[in-house]
Each structure stands twice: as structure tokens, then as C-alpha cells.
Write a structure and sequence with these properties.
alpha/beta; Nucleotidyltransferase, domain 5
């Protein structure tokens, strides 16, 4: 099976390619340059390194949010273009669920947590076998963390920023090593391989597929506030 996976949900993105069920390419995207400039060249490079063309792919795997509004839009638009042009199915994966998979094997509950800016987080809580305990949500850090009532492993870029709150709340938490605490498109490949049945190509579903934003963009909030001021 030939797979392409991409994650543009944060400023640390990645691309991974699997050919004949073997990992053949993995790259971290340069966070100093926008995804619109870096993503397609990295995909093209990865496919060439793997001696594949887009038409050879059996599945496209995507970290579909929550996360960066711009990154999510660019990633989904890119894969939609590949999908519709070559009739390749897309498997969207929740970014928080993807992060939780990084610490597979722990006996603790897993709390993926992302910095959502504006003093908010995207976070969820999963059991050690990845059953949902607290659904993915957008919340103030303390609002979410004060609900944690068990030992956890915390993973994601929100951990560093809000670790002081975990300590203040006396939450029993562990941190994963560096190599497990970042977004990695290889994890998306692993999730795809674990699926009991892979999705089929369905143009209608792909056409209406949207990123899992969890909250409105700042532009939408500003527009709504301006409209309220006119009333």
C-alpha cells in the first residue's frame, strides 16, 4: 500500500510517505516559511525519493484539526486536489487523537494539549487504549485542566506553556521524551494501518470535507463584533 500523510496543524508540520507498506520518506517542514511555500515542494520531493507519483497513492491521510486555521486549510485543499484529480480516498484524523498515539503503551490516561493562542487550549483526554474520556474541546487552560481527576501523560505544545497550571492544580502528570512530543506525520501512517477498513473514494464526501476547527477564526469573531456594534 502506498500512502501520503501530511500534518500542517501547527507551526511544526511534517510529511511522510509509505511505499509498499514501508516508510520511505519523512520530513519536518521549516516553520519559518509558510506552508503555502513549503508543502507542495516537500510532497513532491518525498514522492520522488520514494519513486512514486501522486497517481500511485492508495490513500491520503490528513491531520484535520484542531489547529492552525491557515495550515489546516492549505493541507486539506492540497489533498482534495490530489484526491479529486486521481480518485484517491482521504482519511481525516483528529489532531489531538494523533498526538495521543505518540505515547502508545502507557498505562496512564493521555491528555493531548495544544496552544490555541488567545490564552486558550485545544485539549482532550483519552484512556490508555485511546477511548475518549473527555471530547476534544477549545477551552481556557485552567477550565479544562481542573477537570483532570487521574494520573496522565501530557503531550503537545500546550504542555510547555501551561505546565505551571498542572503543577498548581497538583495534577499527577508525566511528560514524554522529546521525540514523542511533536507532530509527526508518520503517526498518521500508523493510524491508517490500524483501520479495520480504509475509506473508499467518494467525491461528494470529499467535496464537503472541512477542517475540524473547534472554534471560529479571529476574523469571524471580529466581523461578528462589528456587526453587533452597528445594531
Amino acid at each position: 500500500m502506498n500512502l501520503l500523510a501530511i500534518d500542517c496543524s501547527t507551526t511544526s508540520g511534517s510529511v511522510a510517505v509509505m511505499k509498499d507498506d514501508k516508510l520511505t520518506f519523512m520530513s519536518l517542514l521549516d516553520i519559518r516559511i509558510t506552508y503555502s511555500e513549503r508543502l507542495l515542494p516537500q510532497i513532491d520531493f518525498g514522492l520522488k525519493q520514494s519513486k512514486l507519483q501522486v497517481s500511485d497513492l492508495d490513500l491520503l491521510v490528513l491531520a484535520n484539526g484542531p489547529g492552525s486555521f491557515t495550515g489546516l486549510r492549505i493541507a486539506l485543499a492540497t489533498l482534495k486536489g490530489f484526491s479529486i484529480a486521481h480518485k484517491i480516498p482521504i482519511l481525516p484524523v483528529n489532531t489531538l487523537f494523533m498526538l495521543a498515539q505518540n505515547v502508545a503503551g502507557t498505562s496512564r490516561a493521555i491528555m493531548p494539549i495544544l496552544d490555541a493562542k488567545m490564552n486558550e487550549v485545544y485539549a482532550a483526554l483519552y484512556s490508555s487504549d485511546f477511548q475518549e474520556i473527555m471530547a476534544p474541546q477549545n477551552a481556557k487552560p485552567t477550565e479544562f485542566l481542573q477537570k483532570i481527576d487521574r494520573p496522565i501523560v501530557a503531550v503537545g505544545n500546550g504542555l510547555k506553556k501551561y505546565e505551571n497550571i498542572l503543577q498548581e492544580l497538583k495534577i499527577d502528570y508525566q511528560k514524554p521524551p522529546l521525540q514523542q512530543n511533536f507532530h509527526n506525520a508518520v503517526t498518521l501512517l500508523q493510524i491508517a494501518l490500524q483501520q479495520p477498513e480504509l475509506p473508499k473514494y467518494d467525491m461528494e464526501k470529499i467535496a464537503v470535507l472541512e477542517p475540524f476547527y473547534l472554534r471560529r477564526s479571529q476574523a469571524e469573531i471580529v466581523k461578528e463584533n462589528k456587526e453587533k456594534e452597528k445594531l
